[in-house]
Structure formats: C-alpha cells, structure tokens
C-alpha cells in the first residue's frame, strides 16, 4: 500500500503522523482510503488481492468475449460453449455462506482497524 501511494499519488504514508504549520495532518485516514479505492488495476495492492495477477479491466473482458465469439462460431446446438482459458471466475459465483463469511471477516477487520487507530489518537479530520 505504501509503495502504491508513493507511485501513483506521490504521497508518503508517514504523513499520517506529520502536521503542517497550522497543526493539520498532512495525510488523513480518509485521504488514504479514497486513494486506495482509486488505485488502478496495475497497482501492487490490486495484484496482491488477485493472487499476484493483474485484475482484468473492461478491455480484457471485451477481448475475451470476442475470442469466445470466434471460438464458438458454428457450435452445434446443445454443446457447451468454449470459455476463454484466462477469463477469471466471477466473484458472483461465491456461495451465500462464503459471501457471509467474507462480509463478517471484513466487518471484524474494520472494527479492529478503527480501534487500533482510535487508540493511537489518529483520526480522519
């Protein structure tokens, strides 16, 4: 995350603990959150969340769709259409139980994050 903030936004994560001449933080948690949410697919954080691979964007999905159209041209009725071999599995394919476990883990992580930074006296202004 620190490398991505530096690479894409030229911001130092250490600025969370630094103040300007008026006593305001140079970087707030809200600013970090907004920047992380806006990271491009080639960021290290996005690749780490995608098992080390660059996440697909609209262009990659459209090209895979064209590949599939070409590969399935003239397919006999009832045969399973070919999928692009590199197409990622949709996250919508998760079972409701898996999604609930994920959501519960994310809520727990957020609470821990908030408690940790509240104890440090760091907050978004």
UniProtKB/TrEMBL annotation:
Extent of Basic and acidic residues compositional bias: 94-106
Composition-biased stretches (Basic residues): 74-86
Region (Disordered): 74-109
Name listed for the protein in its UniProt record: Uncharacterized protein
